[in-house]
């Protein structure tokens, strides 16, 4: 049996910095609180190289590194980062444990030993797009794998890993323990996490490595240091195989974040949303789902909320497709106040398995088509883009706009009984007209394009409907007329005005 541990060093600091677009490469340190008396709890490599050390006060750290980013712990950032770590862990095995902040233990039982190293290295590489610097260890016990992961985090890519351990892949920060004793002997005693009191006692005895501790008899350590000493001695031996406390895969694919500083521009918001999508798409794929829709919501500084649902033309877990849908909507959005929090939720469904009909035609890129429509909607309005569909009413020209389908159905068969009579060429919109009436019948027609006496009149034909709804009731009177100079037209009297509705061919 073997275990793998995915490890994120300086986890609270990484959890904060990964949500800042311009953070990579900049010196940063985590402080206990945002005050002058606060001390450094963690520092990234850029800050360490500038002279920042653990335990320094804020003024001392800034004196060493004037451009130092001062950050404090953010529980919501840490929860999001831990969820991302677990999502990557599920790519290795369905049996994983949320061991501690920044540590995920994976049970590799049943995995092919020939591919375990490569898969673990791939999992560490998968954490890089999330904004993490990660390492991993593989060992016979969870604790031994943890020691290996910590050792891999502090080793240089070209450095010899040392006795008893090998790199899973060349240059990869993944150590696999081969010879347990040879690996544990030179490790510092602090790797076993002793209490400060016991560490001080052992230091007085001249014991500073795990090998020096385990060279003592276990019973002798227990008689002098008690149960805490026995536990430390067992940890120094690499621990034992224990059952993991497995976590279940997420059932709700959502993410949310509150901003310490209000967001007023698009770029930082898109950066956070992409971080969300990186995790959500990975969780969906691990669970065998795809995203059918997304719900976006954010709270503004004035207390109002903006909510928008995105129905995808085709279920997918392609992060570029999902991100493009969010980007298209947000680039044309203007809010009255800055943003204080954001939430994103993916509605999961099973992957679509469908065989098209022989004469059906599908879109080559339905997501690209939907993105183009979204951009057009942002310019002309959402109620002006779509496919016209006749409404179930006798009202002339009553149509509604519906979203176009991803599949074009075959053409409808020709009607059994073809239309009888002259075709009417409709005017869009109808032409305003003035009509001269004689004994209630039209006798002369004026429009901005033509005019003349009316030689022949057919009608009237009365039509009305939806009288039960005051705001939608309609009524019209229609005539078919022929002018003495030539030309046949349909007249319509509605809303207390005359119009030329169309011309007969």
Provide a descriptive summary of the structure in words.
- With 505 residues, the chain is an alpha+beta fold.
- It has helices at residues 11-17, 45-49, 58-64, 75-89, 113-126, 142-154, 180-184, 196-204, 210-214, 218-236, 266-286, 319-330, 366-380, and strands at 3-7, 28-31, 40-43, 69-72, 96-100, 103-107, 135-139, 165-167, 174-177, 253-263, 290-300, 305-316, 339-349, 361-362, 387-390, 399-402, 407-408, 424-438, 441-446, 451-465, 474-483, 488-494, 497-504.
- A six-stranded mixed sheet has the order 5-6-1-7-9-8. It has a six-stranded antiparallel β-barrel with strand order 18-19-20-21-22-23. It has a four-stranded antiparallel sheet with strand order 10-13-11-12.
- The longest helix is centred in the middle third of the chain and has 21 residues, at 266-286.
- It is elongated.
Question: What can be said about this structure in brief?
Answer:
The protein is an alpha+beta fold and 505 residues long. Helices cover 29% and strands 31% of the residues.
State the total count of DSSP E strands: 23
Oligomerization state of this entry? single chain
Amino- and carboxy-terminal Cα gap = 85 Å
The chain-level mean pLDDT equals 87
Order of the strands making up the biggest sheet: 5-6-1-7-9-8
Instruction: Tell me what portion of residues adopts beta-strand conformation.
Output: 25-35%
- Number of continuous helical runs: 13
What is the CA-based Rg, rounded? Answer: 36 Å
- The secondary structure category is alpha+beta
Q: What is the molecular shape?
A: elongated
């Amino acid at each position: 049996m073997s275990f793998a541990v995915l490890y994120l060093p300086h986890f609270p600091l990484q959890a904060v910095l990964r949500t800042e677009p311009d953070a990579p490469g900049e010196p940063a340190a985590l402080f206990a609180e945002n005050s002058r008396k606060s001390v450094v709890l963690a520092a990234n490599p850029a800050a360490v190289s500038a002279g920042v050390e653990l335990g320094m006060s804020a003024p001392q750290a800034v004196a060493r590194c004037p451009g130092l980013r001062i950050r404090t712990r953010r529980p919501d950032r840490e929860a999001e980062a831990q969820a991302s770590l677990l999502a990557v862990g599920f790519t290795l095995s369905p049996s994983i444990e949320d061991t501690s902040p920044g540590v995920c233990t994976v049970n590799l039982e049943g995995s092919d030993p020939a591919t375990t190293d490569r898969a673990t290295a791939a999992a560490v590489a998968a954490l890089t797009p999330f904004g993490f610097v990660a390492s991993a260890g593989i060992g016979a016990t969870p604790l031994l794998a943890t020691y290996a992961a910590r050792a891999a985090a502090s080793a240089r890519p070209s450095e010899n890993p040392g006795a008893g351990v090998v790199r899973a892949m060349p240059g990869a920060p993944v150590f696999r323990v081969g010879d347990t004793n040879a690996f544990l002997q030179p490790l510092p005693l602090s790797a076993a996490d002793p209490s400060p009191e016991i560490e001080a006692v052992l230091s007085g005895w001249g014991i500073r490595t795990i090998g020096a501790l385990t060279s003592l008899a276990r019973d002798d350590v227990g008689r002098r240091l008690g149960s805490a000493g026995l536990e430390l001695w067992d940890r120094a031996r690499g621990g034992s195989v224990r059952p993991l406390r497995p976590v279940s895969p997420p059932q709700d694919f959502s993410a949310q974040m509150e901003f310490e500083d209000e967001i007023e521009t698009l770029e930082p918001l898109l950066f956070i949303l992409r971080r969300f999508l990186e995790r959500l798409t990975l969780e969906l794929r691990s669970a065998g789902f795809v995203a059918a829709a997304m719900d976006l919501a954010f709270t503004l500084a004035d207390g109002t909320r903006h909510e928008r649902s995105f129905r995808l033309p085709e279920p997918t877990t392609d992060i570029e497709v999902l991100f493009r849908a969010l980007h298209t909507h947000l680039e044309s959005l203007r809010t009255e106040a800055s943003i204080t929090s954001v939430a994103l939720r993916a509605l999961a469904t099973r992957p679509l398995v469908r065989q098209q009909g022989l004469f059906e035609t599908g879109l080559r890129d339905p997501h690209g088509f939907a993105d183009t429509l979204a951009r057009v909607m942002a310019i002309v309005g959402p109620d002006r883009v779509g496919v016209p569909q006749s409404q179930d009413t006798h009202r002339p020209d009553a149509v509604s706009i519906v979203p176009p389908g991803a599949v074009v159905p075959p053409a409808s068969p020709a009607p059994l009984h073809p239309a009888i009579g002259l075709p009417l060429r409709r005017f869009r919109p109808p032409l305003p007209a003035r009509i001269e009436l004689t004994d209630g019948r039209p006798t002369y027609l004026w429009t901005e394009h033509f005019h003349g006496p009316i030689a022949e009149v057919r009608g009237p034909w009365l039509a009305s409907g939806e009288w039960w709804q005051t705001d939608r009731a309609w009524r019209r009177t229609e005539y078919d007329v022929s002018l003495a100079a030539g030309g046949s037209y349909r007249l319509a009297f509605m809303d207390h005005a005359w119009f030329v509705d169309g011309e007969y061919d």
